[in-house]
Amino acid sequence: MDTRINEMMRLLEVGGIVSLLLPISGLSAELRSSETIEPIDLVKAIYIVDLEHVAMYWNDWRNFEKFVLCIPLTDGKVHSYLNRMEQYLAWQLALRENAGQLMTYPNPSQIVRQIVFDAEQIAGERERKKIPPSSCDLMFSVCKHDRSLSETLQHAGLQFELLQKEVAGPGAGASR
Known about the structure:
Elements: H1 2-12, H2 18-31, E1 36-37, H3 39-54, H4 61-69, H5 84-97, E2 107-108, H6 110-127, H7 135-145, H8 147-155, H9 160-168
Parallel strand pairs: 1-2
């Protein structure tokens, strides 16, 4: 258990939106009965928590929503509707009800840890100082580390080239 907590704490120390995305990713993993948080859970958390910052990189944000709704749950069923605010508020209420207690979630997989630390490095290189990654940095890093998911996201309407330009920053080449 100590290792699991230490790994999550290292990721939460990245800060910024990561501190909110990881617990929501954990809830997503639990809904899939997964013992680990996988990139698909991180993508779902980005949709729930920060759609406004990544919607412009989709040919239509509703295609992102359709993609998230198709993520199978434990029983093999999928969401027919997902209220982003309700999901967020449910998490906030759980925090309030468990105030002072440690809430545990599935452990982030190795690839999710790589995604978060890579996104942090990308953001730092772009800004030339240590800063937390944005949801755009994280989405780009998901695509970089999970080619299959990247292809699926692009097929669903993610405009990867636009995202890549955003992550590279003004005046940078799209060499990432």
